[in-house]
Design a protein that fits this description.
By secondary structure, this protein is an alpha/beta fold. It is 37% helix and 22% strand. It has 2 domains: 97 residues, Beta-Lactamase (2-Layer Sandwich), CATH 3.30.450; 204 residues, Rossmann fold, CATH 3.40.50.300. The strands form 2 sheets. It has a 7-stranded mixed beta sheet, sandwiched between helices. It has a 6-stranded antiparallel beta sheet with strand order 3-2-1-6-5-4. Helix 6 runs parallel beside helix 7 and helix 7 crosses helix 9. The longest helix has 15 residues. It is globular, with a radius of gyration of 22 Å.
């Protein structure tokens, strides 16, 4: 198992899938590809699940587990966020790869506006996107920037702990749900009594947690968290929808006063076939944006203010950033167009580059013909990774 996992990590996998009746699979550059040819048995997936669980009490109740989250690591291989589940009566496992090195905003090639956002003394910063869009990595980069440049006390609440931060200029307290504190709600309430400057919450799942998060921002803390929303406007709408109608007017005012920024992102395949790059939409709450949130009836206007506030506030829409990525040669025109929030706006952005997009698309096609990575074979085909690991007996 460890040889297969290491081979996947060496190839740049972001996730590894293990399931009875199927081969090992890994998500590489956004594609789910087979690693081996031999299907796993239910006994093998149970043994793997047991090996990944480190808590002795949980190991004893392995056969009663239906959904389970934990962290796992191995020397020379890496660290992983593990989800163990049941399907068709047997175990299945999904492992998210967590790099040993904590990423920086620069290394991730994220907009420099993010460093300004991280310097805020108070307010709520939300990193949003669909599952697998790199939210945890971006949050780690924000904490890394604070840790490197600010003298602050940072408390993180995670399930499980992903990136391991060492104290540099800041003091970091990393707490794992289920091990160091009972829940996000309890951990967040306790954090307010632990003299924090910055609080990171791995996920806000309910109105009570969001209410406490807003309270933390209102009382002078910088709070960083995530939501599974595709863009800034839907993030505001999702938060409001979590509260009963009779509370929404008050919550809208509190949210407008406490929200500092929303960073929404999508991961797109690079034009050269070597990994993925983040396209980011950035909303910074200005007095005008605050009024729009309080009013609640014209949230769609926020997109126009994001587009116009690029130079002064560092805001940008997805379509603006997509145009930049095409112009720099990082993303193919067709990929960017397919992922645009408003294709017509994206096309307008590209026209300002004088047809560069089409030339870039032609360049990408030439790269593909001259040696871009070939598609992985289907399960049961010839070689998986070509790493000498096919038919490995576990």
């Amino acid at each position: 198992m460890q040889r297969i996992i290491k081979a996947a990590v060496d190839r740049g996998a972001s996730d590894i899938h293990i399931k009875a009746g199927d081969v090992f699979r890994a998500r590489i550059n956004g594609e789910l590809v087979p690693l081996t040819r031999q299907a796993l048995t239910p006994e093998q997936t149970r043994a793997i699940a047991l090996d990944l669980i480190r808590n002795e009490e949980d190991r004893k109740r392995i056969d009663s587990i239906t959904d389970y989250d934990c962290g796992w690591g191995a020397q020379g291989i890496g660290r992983f966020r593990v989800n163990i589940l049941r399907q068709r009566g047997s175990f299945a496992i999904v492992m998210r790869v967590i790099p040993f090195e904590v990423p920086s905003v620069e290394a991730l090639k994220l907009p420099k506006t993010l460093t300004k956002i991280a310097e805020a003394e108070r307010g709520m910063v939300l990193v949003t996107g669909v599952t697998g869009s790199g939210k945890s990595t971006t949050m780690a980069a924000l904490v890394n920037y604070i840790n490197t440049n600010e003298n602050r006390h940072v408390i993180t609440l995670e399930n499980p702990i992903e990136f391991l931060h060492r104290d540099i200029k800041s003091s970091l307290t990393q707490r794992e749900i289920g091990q160091d504190t009972e829940s996000f709600k309890m951990g967040l309430r306790a954090a307010l009594r632990q003299d924090p400057d910055v609080i990171l919450i791995g996920e806000m799942r309910d109105a009570e947690t969001i209410d406490t998060a807003i309270k933390a921002a209102e009382t002078g803390h910088l709070l960083i968290s995530t939501l599974h929303t595709p863009d800034a406007i839907s993030t505001i709408m999702r938060i409001m929808a979590m509260f009963p109608p009779q509370e929404q007017a008050v919550v809208r005012i509190r949210l407008a006063e406490s929200l500092h920024a929303v960073i929404s992102q999508r991961l797109l395949p690079r034009a050269d076939g070597k990994g993925r790059v983040a396209a980011a939409e950035i909303l910074v709450v200005t007095p005008t944006i605050r009024d729009l949130i309080i009013d609640g009836g014209n949230l769609s206007e926020i997109r126009d203010y994001m587009a116009d506030g690029r130079e002064q506030y560092g805001m940008q829409t997805f379509d603006q950033h997509l145009a930049d990525l095409v112009a720099s040669g990082e993303v193919a025109y067709e990929v960017a167009h397919a992922n645009a929030s408003k294709p017509s706006d994206f096309e307008l952005q590209m026209r300002t580059f004088g047809g560069l997009a089409k030339r870039q698309s032609a360049n990408v096609a030439a790269v593909a013909q001259s040696g871009a990575p070939a598609a992985a074979p289907a399960a049961g085909g010839n070689e998986g990774f070509g790493s000498g690991i096919d038919f490995l007996n576990l």
